Amino acid sequence: DKPLGVINLLLCTIKPNVPEKKFDIILPTRTYFFSAETSEDVVQWTEALTAAHDKIYDDLSHNTAKLQVF
Questions:
Q1: Which distant-in-sequence residues (6+ apart) come within 8 Å of 49 by Cβ?
Q2: Which of 1, 28, 39, 46 is the most buried (most CB within 10 A)?
Q3: b/e map of 30-47 (b: 16 or more CB within 10 Å)?
Q4: Which pTM value belongs to this model?
Q5: What 3-state class would DSSP assign to 1?
Q6: What is the secondary structure of 4-45 as a DSSP string?
Q7: Which parts of the chain have pLDDT scores under 50?
Q8: What span, in angstroms and rounded, lies between the C-alpha atoms of 25 and 19?
Q9: Cβ atoms 33, 42 nearer than 8 A
């Protein structure tokens, strides 16, 4: 199956709501609302998304720093 789209994690804010078993991915022009079966699932999803966001940011920062070295 073909993916419906892509969420740019570099531009997003991840907002968990553990008690309600929900989390949001907030972008400048759109917000995606997700629900999970358990509070633990919310924590796992938000930790994984945050880790992916941080890795993308770190990789981009590292590569940009390399380009600026003369």
A1: 9, 12, 14, 25
A2: 46
A3: eeeebebeeeeebeebbe
A4: 0.78
A5: coil
A6: -----GGG-EEEEEGGGTEEEEE-SS-EEEEE-SSHHHHHHH
A7: none
A8: 17
A9: no
Residue 19: its pLDDT value, please?
96
> Quick one: pLDDT at residue 66?
59
Q: What is the pLDDT of residue 20?
A: 97
- Radius of gyration for the alpha carbons in the chain, expressed in angstroms and rounded: 15
Tokens of 54: 């941080």
Q: pLDDT tens-digit profile of 20-29?
A: 999 999 999 9
